[in-house]
Amino acid sequence: MSEFKLTTVEENEAATERLLETGAKVGADAWQFRVKNQTPHCKFGEQGICCRICSMGPCRITPKAPRGICGCDAHGIAGRNFLRFTAGGSATHSDHGREICHTLHTVSPDGNYKVKDPEKLIRIAKEWGVETEGKDVYALAHEMSELALLEYGKPFGVQRFLKRAPKHTQELWAAAGIEPRAIDREVSTAMHMTHMGCSSKPEALVKQALRCGLSDGWGGSMCGTEFSDVMFGTPKPIETEANLGVMVEENVNIIVHGHDPSLSEMICEYADDPEMIAYAKEMGAKGITVSGVCCTSNEVAMRRGIPMAGNFLQQENVVLTGACEAIVVDVQCIFPALGPLSKCFHTKFITTSEIAQMPDSDFVKFSAETAGENAKSIVKLACENFKNRKPELVHIPNLKKKATVGYSLEAIKKTLDTVTNSHVDETGTLMPLVDCLKSGVLRGAVAMVGCNNPRVRPDTAHIELMKKLIANDVILVLSGCSAQAAAKAGLMDKEAKNLCGAGLKRVCELADIPPVLHMGSCVDISRMMVLSSDLANDYGCNISQLPLVGCAPEWMSEKAVSIGNYVISTGIDTYLGVEPQISGSSQMEELLYDKVSDWVEASYTVEKDIDKLGDLMIERIEEKRTALGI
Ligand code: BF8
Ligand code: SF4
């Protein structure tokens, strides 16, 4: 037991250095070099005070030029930029959700996609007031798919899933005028409001940013999560491994990267097909290994136990191993750099979505209707590419850790019910967690999410914060690249309980869980919203009163801002290690870091000193405990 040791960031960095040496031999570029070329960054952009939404500009705000040509000031410009940033993220998550809803429309008992969790489908149908009695499950799936797709464009009303939130939260949203209407409408309204000559009032822009975020978290992302579970199965705890060492030198290595599980599920299916394995052997390999990068990896890890090769800033590393036959991507967070990089090796860079088309890639158009054929042809292509490997370039770092993943809300409830057996009903409750919080066995919970960003030494903020929090009896729920950072380090190994305070350690032992729980991909932060709602209801308090905070210590994407906005809108204070691009406007800072809590009872805190960021979260958790009288 005492043998348990985390993989350090230094060990990961040494592995990367070694891979970059291979890269140097073949003239490969890498993000580490491009960061240097891009530093220092444009100050106007960093502060959010460059406006280029009309061709009278671009206008940049300086002490000498306090207004753009149209007269917009720094607050209006930073506010508009922030709202557009949010709209980009919300559109992206929600469109992913829409794809899932479309895929749901193709399900059939003998088709590419099936209903793997009919109970969940029926549960959501009942929630939406749809008659389920005596209905064929596939007919119901098609009906639900159409209803879900209407959530994107319905002319009247607000998102159906809002009803999952506690009454108090719903009332706050109504009072602030931020209940999201049709998902697409909130993105369109954001674009409209930020057109030249529309809104330049920070309050109005921030409110729409919250509403647009909510249309993601409680709309598009929630559809993505829920209907992915219906088709691919609701995650349950499952063992897997993480870090580059999951790639297998003698096998055909296929990396799946991106976000939409429709593609990766099919690739995994065919990579397991005896016919394909025989084909790989014919090509000189011993078998086929599929592993993942970014959120696609989270999706297939938590449903199939597919190993996780790495997170966002490790995507180039998988190619640099020289042992990657194909990196197959769908949408989002894919470096265009993978095209030229793959050309330095034998790797096939396979793009599959019209949404994410890139130079120097092989495009295999993937669609739900032809998914089986598409996946088979991609797996075949990868197998055939095995013989093109250059053995002298092959080096897979010998780093990997065990991880238990797959803690959907359903799985958490089931697992926690084992801690005490006094509150079990058929769906489970969060009462054991409430009891642990009340008694102080657990001090609180942190939802840690988000990306890597070269502005932060990759993974350090995630890992250091996690270590600090678990040592202080704070349990973590994780998603996205934060989850992968944890898994690579070993924090999702159940043995990591030895790094916890006495209370959390006891919970880990009793429930047989790791101290940091993998809740999935970034769209699955919607799971965390339902978790916090149920927890508040079970506790008998408001979400904002719970000893619970959100944290994105290394965030980088527009999606992360959309997420942040719906997390604070749900009443959860959110702590950031990277500053949003609004520092050029004192009014925007005041709104996001303070005043917004008048509407939603939560706000953002930014602190680049990671140790301090951890202290601030613990302080906030303790403040909330005191206010609750526990
Ligand atoms: O949606 S955490 S780098 S992979 S944006 Fe991207 Fe960030 Fe990773 Fe998933 Ni989320
Ligand atoms: Fe400049 Fe105003 Fe045009 Fe923006 S909208 S580019 S501030 S003139």
Q: Which features characterize this protein?
A:
Rossmann fold, Substrate Binding Domain Of Dnak, Chain:A, Domain 2, globular, 630 residues, 3 domains, alpha/beta, binds iron/sulfur cluster, six-stranded parallel sheet, 25 helices, single chain, binds FE(4)-NI(1)-S(5) CLUSTER with Oxygen, 16 strands
Question: How would you describe the overall organization of this protein?
Answer:
It is a single chain. By secondary structure, the chain is of the alpha/beta class. The chain has three domains: 69-232, Substrate Binding Domain Of Dnak, Chain:A, Domain 2 (Up-down Bundle); 244-393, Rossmann fold, CATH 3.40.50; 405-628, Rossmann fold (3-Layer(aba) Sandwich), CATH 3.40.50. 48% of the residues lie in helices and 10% in strands. The strands form four sheets. Strands 6-5-4-7-8-9 form a six-stranded parallel β-sheet. Strands 13-12-11-14-15-16 form a six-stranded parallel β-sheet, sandwiched between helices. α10 (261-271) crosses α12. It is globular, with a radius of gyration of 24 Å. The model has no long low-confidence stretch (mean pLDDT 96). The structure holds FE(4)-NI(1)-S(5) CLUSTER with Oxygen and iron/sulfur cluster. FE(4)-NI(1)-S(5) CLUSTER with Oxygen binds at residues 259, 294-295, 312, 333, 450-451, 480-481, 521-522, 557, 559-560.
